[in-house]
Amino acid sequence: MTASLVERWGLPPVRRQWPLVTAMAVDTLGTGLYLPFTLLYFLATTSLPVTRIGLAMAIATGASLPLGPVWGACADRWSPRTVIVISNLLRVVGFTGYLAVRSFPALVITAFVVQVGSRAFYSSYTPLIAQVAPRGQRERWFGFLSATRNTGFALGGVLAGIAVTGAGTIGYRAVVLANAASFALAAFLMLKVKTHAQPQHGQVAAHGGWRAVLADRPYLALTVVNLAFALASNTIDVVLPVYLVRWLGLPAWTAGASLGLNCVLVATCQGPVVRLVEGRRRPRLLILSGALTAAAAGVFLAAKPLPAAPALALIVIGVVVFSVGELVQSPVMAVLSAEAAPDALRGRYISLFQLSWTVSNTAGLAVLSWLLGVGALATWGFLACVALSGSAGIGLVGPRLRFGAAAPDEASAAALTPEPQPGD
């Protein structure tokens, strides 16, 4: 691929980091295979009712929550790459164990192992990319890997649908086994990833460890503000499918199509959007992304009183508007949260930041489920207010962060500077 084409599409220089890109693609392809059929797998292979399966998953998730900060400290001490390798191996063990699950206790134990692996991954992913990518190219790396992961999720879901159709229990077991194999391959590839120098343990101690993290009030405020962005991110995959089928009376295929459109837009447009936004003030970009999410909520609500055809047209417009906000928010927030942390404590900082996503994906989902039972106006009005509160919050917090705003010429300066030779 020529340098001009790479620049035009906002892509990072991936040639030296092909193991990382391949590992992320394999990881998400396997997860995409399994994720849509989580409940269906255990319904097909055990005698447990859906309520017991859901309870087991909730117990495993809740029990794993305190381990995120533990893994963050491990990333600072051992390196993020090492922790991600461990996370992949844990998920190999967990998903292989799913094949033998027949009882409630066995499901809780194996699901806990999987969740521990997930906590390790998300506490180390951002610090790893911050080590791989030099300043000025980090939006490109986060954006490119986000597009890669979305493509893997979408393709995995399609392949899983083909695998289980007409194959019964054998198909479900094949999907779980393929997911376990994908994590094994990803672990092997991660061992080949080249990173820049890792801070030594003495540097971590010199920076104050967890005491310094918890004393960083602007970063704590950023974590709280991200609750709004994280909760609003559930619009497409949690709220919209129920809204389309239950409130608008549209066919079930529209739910999958809306999610598919979002995935396609993220996969194909992330690079060009990153190229447009890099070098601009990150807090301002996040304010814009929150406003776009609120606007999308308004568009979705406006579809309710309309006949099917114009309602579906508005839904498409709403998905596009939401996706543009996501294309801006995802890489910018990732870089903002990474660069607002000192190098020696980045694992701890990011593990704290990830708690905002974890809280959103647990308590937030319960709130959204309740609102969907109340009505369309309550649901979309709440999400619009949440998105706008995120914009307001980042406007207040962003300027106070350690490295909160990229210098306007940061990206161009990085483009003129040769990429450092990576090494272990």
Can you walk me through this structure?
With 424 residues, this protein is mostly helical. The protein has 2 domains: 8-198, Up-down Bundle (Growth Hormone, Chain: A); 209-417, Growth Hormone, Chain: A (Up-down Bundle). 79% of the residues lie in helices and 0% in strands. The protein contains 19 helices and no strands. It is globular. Residues 404-424 have low confidence and may be disordered.
How is this structure best summarized?
This protein has two domains: 8-198, Up-down Bundle (Growth Hormone, Chain: A); 209-417, MFS general substrate transporter like domains (Growth Hormone, Chain: A, Up-down Bundle). The chain is 79% helix and 0% strand.
